Amino acid sequence: MSKKFQxxxxxxxxxxxxxxxxxxxxxxxxxxxxxxQYTVQxxxxxxxxxxAYYANPALWPFLxxxxxxxxxxxxxxxxxxxxxxxxxxLYQTRYPYPAMNQSYMPPTGLPEDARFxxxxxxxxxxxxxxRYFRYKLTLRPTQLWGYIVSAPDQIKENYLERDLVYIxxxxxxxxxxxxxxxFGIYRDRGPLNHPLNPDRAIGFMSEIVGEVEVTSTGNNxxxxxxxxxYVEIKRSDKICLFTPRSREIVPSKTHMMLxxxxxxxxxxxxxxxxxxxLENDIVFIDRGECHGMREGMLLNIYRPPHPVTDPFFHRWxxxxxxxxxxxxxxxxxxxxxxxxxxxxxxxxxxxxxxxxVSD
Length: 359
Fold this sequence. Notes:
6-stranded antiparallel beta barrel; Membrane-bound Lytic Murein Transglycosylase D, Chain A; 6-stranded antiparallel β-barrel; alpha+beta; 19 strands; 4 helices; about 30% strand; Elongation Factor Tu (Ef-tu), domain 3; Thrombin, subunit H; flat; about 15% helix
């Protein structure tokens, strides 16, 4: 067989085999090629980039797993600022999370008493309501900027939207006040102690009751107009910085089991003047960012068990935790968080237990 004929046969084999190898390589490709790249800007985080690119910040682990070259310096990876100028590969979401946004159908044939345990977790954002964010629990009292002294209408004792009021600002803050500045109107709710240990101080509770905008600063007293009032505004109500956000809250789960205790209700109160909460009420919990809590995290709420006597061995045994409702973290502070009660089977009271909803 001549060398020329051998070369022709080899060329024909290569022409047939190479396209097949390309197809098999694409079929067995473990990580598909990225659809694009994003250059990190100053202050960018994985949480923010996932929210901008995928419209769901809860998908930040996907970006992290597909970009192993990213360097995270301790803490929570989704909240750590990335190095400006870093290139991040952007992939489609269908590869690691094929069922992330698929609808979930509960199984049929469940007893009526157990149906509340089977719930569908919504992954779409919920509308923002700034009134839910007006409760705060801090280690120290809220910083005072000023207080309401009076109003042009001297007869009025209470004020609502569109009313003008006179505000006295602290001398150290007065120089920084400009026309058009907006502030919150708040009231101190007093110190708060732990429900399971009354001798242990938790912090100071405050409540935003309205918003004002400065219209004049020419005199000793600044004039402001009330933009919003959740309750009737009164003289001596205090002024503080307040910057409401306008983005949606995206419900999310976690891969960790986090537990905590409900400290107090910010909105609920029963006929015995004891704090209790139902659906759409706000409560404080004793876990915050340093414990792993994040905005949008879903929680289950349980009642601590009461021991019972064993009828045969006559000894105390504990019973399982009683499910009483569900909630979602609206805002996580350093050592506490505010939670919106989304479902309540009965009244939720301080001392109830919260557990994170894991994947």
